[in-house]
Amino acid sequence: MLLYKSWLAISVVLILAGTAWISAGPGTDPYFTYSVLALLAFGLDLADGSTMGFVFIILALPHLGWRETLLLAESATFIHAVTHPERVEPRALLRSLCATALAILATQSMFHGATLAHIPEPLRLMLASGVCFIALHALRWNRSNLWSFPYYPVAAGIAGLFPVSVVLAPLLYLTWWSYRLYERRLEQQQKMWKKAASLNLRTIEALALAIEAKDQPMTGHSRRVQIYAVEMAKELGLEPHEIEALRTASLLYDIGELAVPEHIILKPGPLTPEEFEKVKIHPTVAAEILERVKFPYPVAPIVLAHHERWDGTGYPNGLKGTAIPIGARILSAVDAVDAYASPRRHRAAIDVKEALEKVAAESGRAFDPRVIAVLRRKQKQWEKLVAAAPDHDFIDSIFSAQREANALFDLTRRLGGSLDLLETFATLTPALKQLVPADSFVVWVEREGHLSPEYISGGLTKLLSRIRIPMGRGLSGWVAANQKPIINGDAASELAHMGTSPYTAQIAMVRHTLSVPLSDVGLRGALTLYRGHSPLFTAEDARVLSTLAPKLSGAIANGLRFRRAADEAVTDSMTGLPNVAALAMRLNANASPGAVVVCDLDGFKGVNDRFGHLMGNRLLEALALRFRHSCRAGDFVARLGGDEFVLLLDGIGPGEIGARIAQFRETVRATGRSLCKEDVLDASFGAAFFPADGTTSDELLAAADQRMYQFKAQQKAGIVELRQRQAGA
Q: Are 52 and 44 within 8 A, CB to CB?
């Protein structure tokens, strides 16, 4: 800035000194007219930031020398800069002063030079006007300036036809008016072209976004690919039309995936050879689509070859080395970097530096070494451009919708095929974290008028597992009873029915709650999410859960029915004890079952005959309950059928079994006395031990059964009673 101001100060001094010198000389009358022309010409602005000063430079050729012309032109330029400082930037002013000086010196040399003195003056004026055009545009040459060239010979014609007088001022104004009229038309055309080009680009971007949202809704990867590709093209010195082609190709290179079935694109795991062959058609399809667009630059060849490899093993045409278009080589490398650095359905994203190293490892095989070298050198700088690129909310909305749709589709597919509740909830947990994050969530299911937690995930598991909520009470109870959701309800109300509770303070730490009803045939409940931090749950969160709830309800109802059916298959319907099938599974699953004890009731038929079968059933039910209570936590009681039971006693050896059998026998007798008010029931027992008596369930049961019959026979003979009296004595 100091340099510019110094040059301007020097110009002011020279202009003032020159004006004084010219004014003191003889024949100064024409200078008034030229001064007016200079002020007028340099005051008539043009759209490109220049002025009509070129007209004054050409008009001054026949009558003024270079010093006078230079002084008047620079004075006029400076006067306008001083009177309109808001329109003048120091750098632009200095450039204008230099261009004007260059044009004046060049045209004066051309017109007054001895070399062309023999040429008629009109022709010299025409030649000088051409030199003036070149000199004025030398510092900012652009093809778009060529349209203004005809006005320079027009100015030369005015200089040759009209004498020096004030009549030149109207002619100058008319020239400027016609210039501006044509300039405005050009501006309108340019605006229309820009608008059409902008519309074309926006259409391309919209199409690219739709393709990307279908392919990879987890991240907006096209920004990195486009920025890297365009910057790489500039770094390698590609022509402007090649850069524009690459800019467009970097948005549309995957358009051919429209021809690939969606289940292949969305497949989370590796593709089969047949599926990969289907994927390989997308460059060809994309190129055929883009050929129809008739881009003014070569987009289709880049897209067609972007999966070719440097060593010739790519597709679709197996091109090798420099036979691959440079745009395709660039696009292939930057797309590979972004693919590694972006999350996919079957893997997480990796760091950009690590992604670059993976791609660089394929230099000379998959990728052009020159492209990789530039990528290594410039990656950090380009990544900053990616970070600074604006994020558009509407793009995020597209990706969000796609993520939700894919997550719900995948979740409902999994729920629909699951009958195991553990599998159902294992599928639900990660999906909910993605769709509606929360600290904890509970699947509440109604049982006998209360909601109990069927499944709990998160930090509140210990607390919530102990809660039973009456239907209609609390937040989840109200939702289940009324089948309406609640957004951001009071979590403390879950415990309100319990009065003062030691857990009240813990659940009070939950700030936001979202609950939606679950309902299916034979099922009522609620899915409730608890969040101890901001933000609040939104109506959008409730909508997502409400969309999921019917599928989840059906999966839970099916799971509960399947569980009941499975339980019934291994449960004795009368006593609730495990049945023969459950016993076999337990024996086969336990490598060392300890003691296997078979119990057969004595006198049970007499109970049925005297007191009726209803009393017999009550006896069996009561005995099953007492056997359960008499056993330890690791023991197992099953009903074989009729009046026979089996007890698996962990860690019991032959030395301890007698006392245990005596205890069980007394349990049988006490049960009979309790219900029938007299001694009507006894039992025979037989025990077998693993592995001494067998290693399979059949062997152990057979040994225990044999000893049970021996026990029964001895009992009939009175031997057992005698031995027991002796032991008591």
A: yes
